[in-house]
């Protein structure tokens, strides 16, 4: 698993490539939490376009960050999900609590009307 992280205008973009499984989930959790704790992050965008596989531990990381960022008044977006991963997220109920967006840039459209 490769993870690219970028903070831009209080939005943390997490771009994941590869498999998010039990072996990698803890590292992903630590890396994202470190940024949340050290930077002024309001929202998170998980870009899942290049994720090949995600298991319950990977889903748990996303759900845990959702709970953490929501407690701070922010939101989590799921961007660019491929069809396989989208189906897993739908069956897990993630789209009922997190917004699915087709492109990362949509986060600016979502937050623009709130300013």
Which keywords apply here?
Anti-sigma_F_ant; alpha/beta; globular; 115 residues; five-stranded mixed sheet; Anti-sigma F factor antagonist; phosphoprotein
In total, the number of strands is: 5
Distance between the termini: 36 Å
**Helices and strands: which structural class?**
alpha/beta
Label the overall shape.
globular
* Biggest sheet features: 5 strands, mixed
Summarize the structure.
The chain is α/β, with parallel strands linked by helices.
Task: Kindly describe this structure.
The protein is of the alpha/beta class and about 120 residues long. Helices cover about 45% and strands about 30% of the residues. The chain has helices spanning about 20-40, 55-70, 85-90, 95, 105-110, and strands spanning about 1-10, 10-20, 45-55, 75-80, 100. It has a five-stranded mixed β-sheet. Strand 3, helix 2 (about 55-70) and strand 4 form a beta-alpha-beta unit. Helix 1 (about 20-40) runs parallel beside helix 2. The mean pLDDT is about 95. Belongs to the anti-sigma-factor antagonist family. In the phosphorylated form it could act as an anti-anti-sigma factor that counteracts SpoIIAB and thus releases sigma f from inhibition.
Layout of SSEs?
Elements: E1 2-8, E2 11-20, H1 22-38, E3 43-54, H2 56-71, E4 76-79, H3 83-91, H4 94-97, E5 99-101, H5 106-112
Parallel strand pairs: 2-3, 3-4, 4-5
Antiparallel strand pairs: 1-2
Helix pairs in contact: 1-2
Keywords: Phosphoprotein, Sporulation
Organism: Carboxydothermus ferrireducens DSM 11255
Pfam family, one: STAS
């Amino acid at each position: 698993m490769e993870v690219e992280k970028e903070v831009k205008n209080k939005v943390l973009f997490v771009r994941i490539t590869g498999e998010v499984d039990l072996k990698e989930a803890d590292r992903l959790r630590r890396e994202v939490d470190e940024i949340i704790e050290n930077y002024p992050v309001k929202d998170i965008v998980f870009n899942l376009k290049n994720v090949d596989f995600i298991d319950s531990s990977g889903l748990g990381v996303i759900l845990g960050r959702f709970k953490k960022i929501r407690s701070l008044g922010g939101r989590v977006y799921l961007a660019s999900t491929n069809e396989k991963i989208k189906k897993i997220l739908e069956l897990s109920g993630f789209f009922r609590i997190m917004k699915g967006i087709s492109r990362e840039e949509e986060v600016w459209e979502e937050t623009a009307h709130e300013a």
